[in-house]
Amino acid sequence: MKKKLSTIFAVAGLLMLSNACTDLKEQVLDETLTAKLSEEETVNGLLAPTYALLPNLFQHTTYFALQEISTDEAILPYRGGTDWGDNGIYIALHGHNTTSTDPNVNNTWNQLVQSISRCITAIEGLKTATSPNAALYTAEARGMRAYYNMVMLDLFGIAFVKDDPGTTSKIIRGDEAVKYIESELLAVEPTVQPKSVVGPGRLNQAAVWSLLARLNLNAAVYRNIYGATFDFKAEDMDKVIQYTDKVINSGQAKLSADYFAIFGNNNHTNEEIIFAVDQRAELNGHNRMAYFSISGDQFPLAEFPAANGTDGPAITSDFYQSWVQAYGAVDPSRDPRFYQQNMSIYTNAADTCVADADYKINRGILRGQQYGALRVNGAFLRCPDGKLKVGKLSYVTRNRADLPVSFSEMIDFTTAGSNYNTGYRVEKYEFSSKSNTGRNRGEADIVIARLADIYLMRAEAKLRKSNDAAGALADVNLVRASRTKTLAPPALTSMTLDLLFRERGFEFYWEMLRRPDMIRFGKYEGQWTEKTNTDVKKRIFPIPQTAIDGASNLPGYLKQNDGY
To answer: Per-residue pLDDT for 170 more than 50?
Structure first.
């Protein structure tokens, strides 16, 4: 089965992509090449498109932007007054002023509706397949359709119901959408394979349980998206506990002792990961999660002197201060999730020569003066022994050699707060060793679900159902204690919903969970750096105007979300 995984994604990498229609009618140009392929190759070719757009969906300017830049975890100003301006879309996104013409919203929508359409095509094509894997692949395609609908419900407040490719999708919302997605996941649960058989890059048994837990945890929000409060029903919380228990008791995942290994270039086999975007370099994965935040004068690879960052988003001072408040007089780097030093020059200024094989930039939240390989005229400087010359970086590539690459806590939309060096940066995912441009050939799988979230979802369900603070505390501390590669975070002594929200920020920062977390915990209408909008209608995004216009021949079919 693992060999077949490579076949499926090899097919996926060759697919031609097209624009999606609102009614989910997509022209498929004989992607299976049925006349030339064996039955097994044919069903592989039917399943491959259901996964093919996941890397696109999880790019920095699609799902990541909507889930993170709209929150207190990420902010992206006009760098230097010009870069990342993009007609103000990131400023609007952060301030909850996004419009229906926003290209990132439009691109995210298109990736989702195309993916749903491809799942429907696969389900239909597999009906007549004679391969022994047809039932399994049908379950995967059906489960992936449920997953994409779940993301659609979370972002846009709607889901699409469609089984016959020749009909128009039915649009559902609220409780009806929750029940539909749940029923689809439950329908495939008995058929999908354990993670040990298919790996985390395909929908597996533990992944289905994880999605069911996540769906039920957020069900109160989805049923009443604009509510002043949310009704976290006991039966929903029981389901969260039921499905998280299944994941934990199945042994299909194990907490990683090394926190940053979860996001490393070799994370394909990391046991903590349950479900992920399989985007190894040979599958044309992207490196955007690693390059997006760091400086354009940080060049992380000795082999590729053109591969650098882009001075994109940083964390807000508000989010950083949550770490400071948690650790008091102790620096937040005490927590192994906050920071990992990979270059000794940061603590020993004399270490200015580094062997190519040992040269790696630091990980986590990067503060202050940054060091790295020094470049002159596009080439790295070398020490007399041939090693890389490393030292203090400045903004040479920006023609600002006078400006050190020294990241400050302060960042906002003012001129001073928008300079290239403002804001603490995030290098959570490891920079791909194969990325010759810095943007391409990502090696690390992008996490969709991992075991730490299973424990913290169970902790939240215990708190919300019966205020079981002791049970919740045990789950949280188990996760904290697991990070033993270095000194694990100290055990917490109490647990409340506010403390759990803070802990989720520490554990999952920049993993595209922050927006739904903030909504669920009642924080999304709060105020933080450059964000004052308290409109509850901004909890979901506008349906793209292009989609509404495209459905204009069906009066009343696609209605814009309230507030847009």
So the answer is: yes
